[in-house]
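This section describes the prediction task in plain terms. A model, or a person checking by hand, is given the sequence of a single protein chain and must write out its three-dimensional structure as a string of tokens. No templates, partner chains or ligands are provided. The sample shown here is typical of the held-out split.
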Amino acid sequence: MKLVADEFTSGIRIDTFLASAIGEGSLSRSKIQSEIKKGAVLINNKQVKPSYLLKEGDVIEFEPSEDSKILPENIPLNIVWEDENMLVVNKPSGMLTHPTTTEKSGTLVNALLYKYGENLSDINGEYRRGILHRLDRNTSGLLMIAKNNEAHEYLVNAMKAGKTEKKYLAVVKGIINEDEFTINKPIMRNPQQPHKMMTGEGGKESISIVKVLKRFNDATFIEVQLITGRTHQIRVHLSSINHPVYNDTLYGFGKMKIKTEEQVLESYKLSFPHPYVGEILSFEITPDEKLEKVLKYLSS
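The expected answer:
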């Protein structure tokens, strides 16, 4: 696993950064400290202490021990479309996109390894075989998966060039009065809570286009189009305008009246140019069970 420290992680301890960022909060700090001391974590090809303070541009490498290898698992996949170079999969809420150091089973990557074996891109390492972009554990929906490195590089470049389109459905707290608007606020890592992101000067440019689909008594059903793709972007942007995603306990105001497995957010529409051919492919799915449950409750 390889990561590069950016300007927003500068000054953060390596053990704190890895414990909070890599494992989405699930990787214990004591465990990562032990791994650092054993030499499993390198900074710029050198061993460091757990107290090492990151600098912008530092190359962080983590080589998992043998008992941390990722194993194939026979987990059903909801495949929306595929060919010999790639596929589009509908990830359910509650599933990690890829393993972490402490959670090495039950992820999308485990399921992909069982079905496709070595026929997945490995540009991002063993923990992220085939993974081009990710969804948070409790965000469901469409993801592109690359079966080879050539397709991987093509699709990553397409995303960087703005040639892909990603749209999400969400229910947010409160009533949004505007029918359509743009949130243009830079996003950076929260220096006090490295597992969280925040808006602020000096962050990376982050743009989300919000369109209201339906208003309820104290909630709004919306579509969000990502122009950029920052970590937790939709959740951070909506929280910053005091309309957090329904049941998002990380960026919201606690649980709403109807219980769900965290944030009510789904990646429902995905468009991209096909590798090698260039033809634009577009896929759309209906609201998942969680989203349907909340919409039904709000409509009653």
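For orientation: The longest helix spans residues 149-160.
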